Target: Phosphoesterase
Amino acid sequence: MRLLIMSDTHVPKRARDLPEQVWREVGRADVVVHAGDWVDVALLDELEARSRRLIGVYGNNDGPELRARLPEVARADLDGLRLAVVHETGPAKGREQRCAREYPDVDVLVFGHSHIPWDTVAEGGLRLLNPGSPTDRRRQPEHTYLTARVSAGRLSEVTLHALPAR
Model:
């Protein structure tokens, strides 16, 4: 199972659309994960139409229309892998311990908000992933997203992709 993981797209405020490379990944993915800050419901509609399966949450910049359609926390079983998605996890300091406490029944937690790529493992085995942003790099050197594979309850081939400068 191939995953595409993104967050903080802020379309159309920070970009008119997702980069073409990301749309190609949508077409290849079995599951698209979006960790919030969509900004406009039009992107949700388009991702729902173009994705085989979409797992998404709302973020702090998402208004009532997105909040009516998306949860604050999404959970899914992906071929035995217990996945949770949330927009915010709080400060970086203590993140692993805090998230391990708050998500004890999860194998992988995808989050966003900071626009800073993150890949760590908490004591006890919870993997925390933040894909950064494909459209709003803020102080990061590049726009980014993640891909990964899931098989028999295991996450593998987690790859951070940097997008060409626009």
Notes: The chain has one domain: 2-162. The two ends are 30 Å apart (CA to CA). Residues 33 and 55 are 5 Å apart (CA to CA). The helical segments are 20-28, 41-50, 64-69, 95-102.
